[in-house]
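re: ur question from yesterday

yeah so i grabbed the chain u mentioned. its 459 aa long if i counted rite. heres the sequnce exactly as i have it in my notes:
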Amino acid sequence: MSVRLARLLCVALIGTCLSTSAFAKTKHRTKAPAAPKGPTLVWRGDVTTARGVVGDVAAVWEKAGHGRIELQSFNTASGLDAVAKGTADLAGAARGSDHSAADSSLSFTPVAWDGLVMIANPSNPVSNLTLKQLHDIYYGKITNWSEVGGNNEPIDLVAVASPGDGVEYSLRRLLFGRGNQPVAAPRLYVNTSKLEEGIALDTKGLGVTTLSGVSGNGKVKLIKINGTAPSVANVADGSYVLFTPLYLVTNPNSPNAAKAQEFIDFMSTDPAKAALRRHAVLPFDDGAALVSLDGPRRAKILAEVGARAAPEPSTPIAAPGATYASRAAVAPTSERTLEAKRALDKAKDEKAAAEAAAEAAAAVAEKASLKNVRGDATTVDTAAAHGKDFAKVSASANVAAAAPAKPAATADGTYKVAKGDTLSSIARKHSVDVADLRAWNNLKGDQLKLGQTLRLSAR
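ran it thru and got these C-alpha cells back, copy pasting raw so excuse formatting
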C-alpha cells in the first residue's frame, strides 16, 4: 500500500468516526425531556413542610411534566410574608391562620398530618412525660430533670425563635389554649432543623420538632407523651394526642393562583401520597377521622393540664374555608367549590360544639387553673445582645435570676417605650401582633423612640 493511499484511508476513517459521534450526540439530544409545562412556582416556608411534604412531592410533580417548584426553605414567618407580598406562590406551615392582619389575605389548605414530638439527647434517662409535666416545663414550674425522673440537672428548654413558628404555635395552643403563649425557653434556634442539631449536642436539652423531621434520626431521643410513643400509626388513630395538620398556603390574588391550586390538588394523588408516607407523614385524607377528634382532644388536654382556652379565633383543623377561598378564585361555580362550602358550614358547627366542650372541661378544672400564676418569657433578638446563654426567664418563683420586669401597660391601655424595647418585644410582652401594633399606632416601620406612648388595642 502506498503512503498516499494509507493517508487517504486514515482521513476516511477519522471522518467516519466524527460523523458517527455527531449522529450519536444528535440522537441523544432528541431523547432529552421536554421543558416542564407552566410557570415555575416558588415555595417558601418552614423546614417541617419542606422536609416532610414539599421536597419529594415537588420532584414527582416535575417528573410528571407539570412544571417546576423552586424550594426556599427557612421558617414559617418568612414563607407567609413572601406569599402575602407576592414574592412566593406557596408557603408551608405547621399551623393554620392565626387570623392576624398579616394572614387575612391568605388561604390555608391542610395537606397532611404530622406529630409534634418532644426530643431529648439519647443519653437522657427520661423516656416519658405526662401532658401536665410538659405543660409545667414550658411554663417554668418544672426546671430540673430530677422532677420528672431524670438526673439532678437543669432542663435546657429550647424553642424556635419566631413566635409565629408553626410547630411552636401548634404545641402552645394545645398546652395553653393559645398559640402565642410566652414560655420559659430562653435558648432559641432559627428553625427546627437547627434545634434538632442543638439537642443532639446538649445532654440536658429538650425541645419540640415533628415526627417527619426526626423519624430515623438516632442522634435524638423521641419522648413518649402519657406513655404513648410518637409514630405514624399512633398519629393516625389519635392515640398520640400531639398531632397537627401541615398546611400549604396560597394567595388567591397571585398571578399563579390557579397553578398553585393545581399543586395543592396534586397532593391528594397516589404518587404524592406515596412520597409523603416515605417521610413518616400521614396524607390528609388518610387521617380524616382526626378532624372530628380535634375538639374533644383539645378540651381533654386543657382539662388535664389545668388550663383554659383563650378566646382567640382559629382555623378549623379541616380548614375548608381556606380551601373554599382559593378554589373559588379559580372556579367559582365548580362542584368542588360547592363541596368545600358545605364542609365550611359543617366545620363551623363542629367548632361551636368543640368550644362548648372546652368550656365545660375548663370549668371542671377551675381549681387547677393558671389564675394568679405568672408565665413571662424573654425572647432575644440576637445572641450578641445577651451573651451566649441568652436572657434568663421569669416563669415562677422557682426560677432564679429572673429578667428585670419592664413597665406594665397603663390603665388606659397604653405603653410607654422603655430603654431596650423593640416593637417585637412589646408585642410579645402584651400578647399582640406586631402588625396590629403598627396599625394601631400608625407606624410605617419598627423604629421606636424612648418615652414614646403606644396604644395596645384598637379601642
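noticed a couple things. The radius of gyration is 27 Å. also The chain has three domains: 1-32, 41-368, 406-459.
anyway ttyl
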